[in-house]
Amino acid sequence: MNDDLPDPAASRAVLIGGSEYRHLIPLPPVAQNLKSLSTALQDPTICGIPESNCTVVANPRFPADFLEPVAAAAAGARDTLLVYFSGHGLRDPDDPDLYMALHDSQDGRGWSAVAYHHLRSLIRASPAPRRIVILDCCFSGRAARAMGGGENLAMQAMVDGAYILAASPGDRPALAPEGEIYTTFTGELLDLLRGGIPDGPELLDLETVYSTLKDRLRAKSKPEPRRACENHSGLLPIARNRACAPPQGVGGPVLDQQITSAITTTGLRLARRLRAVGRTRDALPVLRLVLGQPGVTEGGDDIAVRLELADILTELDHSREAIEVLETAFAAVHDQVGPEVVAVCQRLAALLREVGSHAEACDVLEHALKVSFPGGRSAP
Q1: Each residue of 33-87: pLDDT tens digit?
Q2: What is the distance between the alpha carbons of residues 358 and 32, in angstroms, rounded to a whole number?
Q3: What does the alpha-carbon distance between residue 203 and residue 48 come to, in Å, rounded to a whole number?
Q4: Distance of alpha carbon 366 from alpha carbon 362, whole angstroms
Q5: DSSP label at residue 330
């Protein structure tokens, strides 16, 4: 058994997801699942799979759209093959197989979706010694925003020598809550990959990932995942533990700070581009995601993100929420001086005046004058 991490150049990942459907309830969080999981797998501090080896398939319409990328990845993988599916899973009344929904699939009509046994055959044919299947899917497509499990899922999904990780047991739903950025299961998986496991091993194997996910979801009273494995595949390392500082501990915090700064800068730039092309609402979850990153601190780039977020909320007539965002920024920079402080004060005061809080607006502007002209000097 290989006790090292996968060779990124010899590994392949295919991430497939359905967020938009013609006949089934849409699952908006799945779109973000794909983007963020792809980013995490490519992160050199986690897995480091090259972008060229990580294929994302969003909202496939035909079986070939779904299966051909898997076939190509399965044939090209010489170390690790990872296949992820998130979206609706369906049952056919005359067939016990799992069916993964396409854009035009219909509940109860397995022939309108992709049968799991086709995916299983492609994965089984791969020469990759490590084969991982992650299923974050439903079976029903009913109106409730939930993704249901199913009995004997692990046995249906079994691939010789592979590790199967499923979002929930058969008697409980794997949630995709409305308004959340991610589905419940994938969101927890992303938190684990990004933040690591404190006091865990330097390299994370699949069994450690599974048991930690199970404990964390159980603690939150969320559906617990299931897994099935063969040939000790669960003991194979799959990712670096970002909670473990590398040797000579100084390098760890510096690297984390650089990563956080890069995420913040990229997220801010993306949000501004979305606004520039009229996609203001799409910029909102981007900025909220940036602010939710581990290690993001109040001040610096964080203030720029909050100012941008407040502007978007104001533009969308969410003035009260914009005020809350700016009040958080104001509390962070209250004891500082500089143009950022003034910008926060000016925008906060303007919004407070709009909602009739004139006294509070005056206090904020008075503070802006103090930091602009320290020492009691007056404005010219």
Answers
A1: 999 999 999 988 899 999 999 999 999 999 999 999 999 999 999 999 999 999 9
A2: 40
A3: 13
A4: 6
A5: H
Q: Can you spell out the DSSP letters for 158-217?
A: --TTEEEEESS-TTSEEE--TT-SS-HHHHHHHHHHHH--TT--SEEEHHHHHHHHHHHH
Which element (helix H / strand E) includes 99?
strand 95-100
For the segment 24-30, the average pLDDT, to the nearest whole number, is: 89
Tens digit of each residue's pLDDT (9 = 90 or more) over 249-259: 444 444 455 56
Q: Identify the residue whose tokens are 């915090």.
A: 253
Residue appearing with tokens 């809350």: 324
Q: What tokens does 20 get?
A: 């938009």
Helix (H) or strand (E) holding 270: helix 251-276
Say how many C-beta atoms besides its own lie within 10 A of residue 65's C-beta: 16
Tokens in use for 164?
């199967």
pLDDT at 102 over 90: yes
How confident is the prediction for the chain on average, in pLDDT?
Answer: 79
Question: Please, are residues 82 and 73 in contact by the beta-carbon 8 Å criterion?
Answer: no
**Which residues have a Cβ under 8 Å from the Cβ of 292 and sit 6 or more positions away?**
none
What is the signed CA dihedral for 197, 202, 207, 213, rounded to 10 degrees? 10
Cβ burial 195-207 (10 Å sphere, 16+ → b, else e): ebbeebeebbbbb
Q: Report d(CA 366, CA 343) in Å as an integer.
A: 13
pLDDT over 70 (residue 260): no
CA distance 349 to 358: 8
**What tokens does 233 get?**
């595949």
For the ranges 150-154, 175-179, 282-286, 329-333, the lowest mean pLDDT is seen at: 150-154
Dist. CA 74–CA 68, nearest whole Å: 10
Residues 6+ apart with CB under 8 A from 277: none
CA 119, CA 180: separation in Å to the nearest integer? 29
Radius of gyration of the chain (CA): 24
Strands (DSSP E) along 107-150, which ranges? Answer: 114-115, 130-137, 146-148
- Residue 24: DSSP 8-state: S
pTM here is 0.62
Write down the residue that tokens 């009995």 correspond to. Answer: 151
Q: What are the pLDDT digits (tens) for 231-248?
A: 566 778 899 998 885 544
The amino acid occupying position 354 is: E
